[in-house]
Design a protein that fits this description.
Blueprint (H helix, E strand, L loop, with lengths): L20 H39 L10 E14 L2 E12 L5 E2 L1 H6 L9 H11 L4 H12 L5 H10 L13 E14 L2 E12 L5 E7 L4 H12 L11 E6 L3 H7 L3 E6 L1 H7 L1 H7 L4 H14 L14 H27 L3 H11 L4 H9 L8 H17 L5 H16 L1 H12 L19
Length: 447
């Protein structure tokens, strides 16, 4: 352990004329951002270098060869590293073995720096989190304004694409599987700039959400196969569903690709009511009043809730009553379908016929197994809005890999905040071996 008191020297030229506290604050902030903290770190690193390389020399041997004999070959070799407090110049000592002529830098090994590392891990974390909320160009300006960190937006993009913080394991089980997709503007390919990012998450019994991933260049069929392969490594064993129910907005490709991962499929009630607007109003030509009225009738017909009590506390008579309510609700939906056919709204009727198949899976799952599953995909909607805001409203001209990576970062930050922080904690490798104490400042008389 090295104990050292460092003296801080700051030249202050203060006019006798009046000036504001804000001017003094801004001048102090600019000084320490531009020179103070990087300069302070440089002095600390110089102290560390003296301690570390002398300790290695004192040992006298190194693991480079059997007859190792280290000597100083280059003193004060420079290395610049971008950090969250500005660019820091590291002065370190290079040692050379007189026997095998291999060189080593003790301070670089001590600090855990890679050979070609140009930035600190804490700066990478700041950059990734900042750019998951705003564009690369705005991020460049923002970093410069908050900490005098000048990094071109092209460099920021390269850093994000090289980061491994978005890795999400496909293996894992949950109670409910929820999937959705949203569009984004990609780089024009084949005269089209329309792309889609697909997201799959799982919901546990206690309401916790875990991500399975995001894809831009895979079909729902391929996504389902990848998730199945990760959770079913042995083909000789019968595949066990990773979730009880799949909740979706009703997209045919999504259902076909992911339904095999679950025991049943539940159509999102919110989407059923919302999405009938297209075949009824746009394609069928119904008036807005008639459309809204029908949506209200449909929402009322399918509004059934799972009892609040535990499954074991609900009597057989009450469960039988719920079965009857399901039958009545299905009959009510069929009456609405017949009404649509009678009025000539064939597209809307066919839409509702398809939706009816998975309309009450959440209730049947509870009745048969006592497991509660949601009837709407609201737990994923906030996340999809945040994804849409970042890749549709803030950014455009995405590459497929860029949109996929940014989506993974967003869903990991939202659904797995604890794992996100744990990842960076491991990368930062905080050990508690550094303690700095502020002992105050003194006014020195000019010499």
């Amino acid at each position: 352990m090295i104990e050292q008191i460092l003296s801080l020297k700051v030249g202050a030229s203060l006019s006798e004329n009046e000036f504001t506290l804000d001017e003094l604050l801004l001048a102090s902030k600019e000084l320490f951002e531009r020179e103070g903290i990087p300069g302070f770190l440089q002095v600390l690193l110089r102290l560390l270098d003296d301690m570390v390389y002398k300790k290695v020399l004192g040992v006298g041997r190194h693991d480079c060869c059997k007859k190792s004999h280290l000597v100083v070959t280059r003193r004060e070799e420079k290395k610049t590293v971008r950090t969250g407090v500005g660019t820091v110049t590291v002065l370190w000592t290079r040692l050379k073995c007189k026997s095998c002529h291999k060189t080593t830098i003790p301070l670089r090994t001590f600090l855990g720096l890679d050979r070609y590392q140009k930035k600190s891990v804490e700066l990478e974390k700041t950059v990734v989190e900042l750019l998951s909320e705003q564009s690369y160009r705005r991020g460049e300006v923002h970093l410069k304004s908050i900490g005098s960190i000048e990094i071109p937006h092209t460099t920021l993009h390269r850093w994000v694409m090289a980061s491994c913080c978005d890795e999400i394991p496909l293996k894992g089980r949950c109670d409910t599987l929820v999937a959705d997709g949203t569009g984004y503007k990609k780089k024009p390919e084949y005269e089209s700039n329309r792309g889609e990012v697909k997201v799959v998450v799982g919901v546990d019994r206690d309401g916790g959400v875990r991500p399975y991933g995001a894809w831009t260049d895979e079909s729902w069929q391929s996504i389902g196969q990848m998730i199945k392969a990760a959770n079913h490594p042995n083909e000789r064993v019968k595949f066990k569903a990773i979730a009880n129910v799949l909740v979706s907005d009703g997209e045919a490709g999504l259902i076909h690709g992911l339904k095999k991962l679950t025991l049943d499929h539940q159509r999102c009630h919110w989407h059923i009511v919302k999405d009938i607007y297209q075949p009824l109003r746009i394609e069928g030509g119904a008036s807005i009043e008639e459309t809204r009225s029908f949506q209200g009738e449909l929402a009322a017909a399918i509004e059934l809730h799972i009892p609040e009590e535990d499954f074991d506390q609900v009597s057989a008579e009450e469960k039988l009553g719920l079965e009857k309510k399901i039958w009545m609700a299905e009959k009510g939906v069929q009456d609405l379908i017949d009404e649509l056919i009678t009025k000539g709204y064939g597209d809307a009727a066919r839409y509702l016929i398809r939706a009816k198949k998975g309309m009450f899976a959440y209730l049947r799952t509870w009745l048969h197994m006592g497991l509660k599953n949601p009837r709407v995909s609201s737990m994923i909607e906030r996340m999809m809005r945040e994804i849409g805001r970042r890749i549709k409203k803030i950014g455009f001209g995405w590459s497929k890999k860029g949109a996929e990576k940014m989506t993974k970062i967003i869903i990991k930050r939202i659904t797995s905040a604890g794992e996100w922080e744990e990842y960076w904690k491991n990368r930062l490798n905080i050990t508690g071996n550094v303690r700095l104490t502020f002992l105050g400042c003194e006014i020195m008389e000019p010499s």
